[in-house]
Write a structure and sequence with these properties.
Elements (H helix, E strand, L loop, with lengths): L13 H14 L6 H11 L7 H12 L5 H13 L3 E4 L4 E4 L10 E5 L5 E4 L2 H13 L9 E5 L2 H4 L1 H13 L3
Parallel strand pairs: 3-5
Antiparallel strand pairs: 1-2, 3-4
The structure holds zinc ion (3 copies).
The site of one zinc ion has 8 residues, from helix 6.
Length: about 170
């Protein structure tokens, strides 16, 4: 997904992602507690941005006990503050950050049909937005750049038709 990287950038998944997230949090002087690990694991189990409520449910199910929504919220906030998770504002939901060891103003592409979000990083674009804001005397903290629309899968009618034929023809 890299477009304008001038450094060694890698998006991670699976165990490598969890290890990178732990490194990032510990590197920031925070502890990777069992509960935090559970919240991160729940976050990565979703294939689309998850609301804090969904994450709370997933952690509760995984732990076999009801965990407090408040503590999940606090952990999600901590994750966002430390580049371990991202908040997709227009969806009011969270995603694990695929590059916890690398700071970017991620640009989210949110599909209105399936709800999935992919992301691209374009530091030149986000730097320009920061510059434009700064030029007015504004102090930008973080540009929020999200594009709503339809993902490649949902936008391609042929692919969608193939899928429906496939599922109709598959007997289980
Ligand atoms: Zn990077
Ligand atoms: Zn990114
Ligand atoms: Zn889609």
């Amino acid at each position: 997904m890299a477009t304008a990287h001038d450094h060694d950038h890698s998006d991670r998944s699976g165990a490598a992602l969890t290890a990178a997230a732990e490194r990032a949090l510990v590197g920031a002087g925070e502890q990777w507690t069992t509960m935090r690990a559970a919240v991160f694991s729940a976050l990565t189990s979703f294939d689309k941005p998850a609301s804090a409520y969904d994450v709370t449910d997933a952690v509760s199910t995984a732990q076999g006990r009801r965990v407090a929504a408040n503590s999940v919220y606090r952990i999600l906030d901590l994750f966002v503050a430390n580049n371990v998770a991202m908040r997709v504002e227009s969806a009011n939901a969270y995603l694990a950050n695929a590059h916890p060891d690398c700071l970017h103003d991620c640009i989210f592409l949110v599909c209105d049909t399936c709800g999935r979000a992919t992301h691209v990083d374009d530091d030149q674009l986000s730097a320009r937005i920061r510059e434009t804001a700064r030029a007015t005397g504004f102090r930008p903290e973080k540009p929020v750049i999200e594009v709503r629309g339809r993902c490649g899968d949902c936008a391609a009618p042929a692919a969608a038709a193939m899928r429906s034929i496939d599922s109709a023809g598959t007997k289980r």
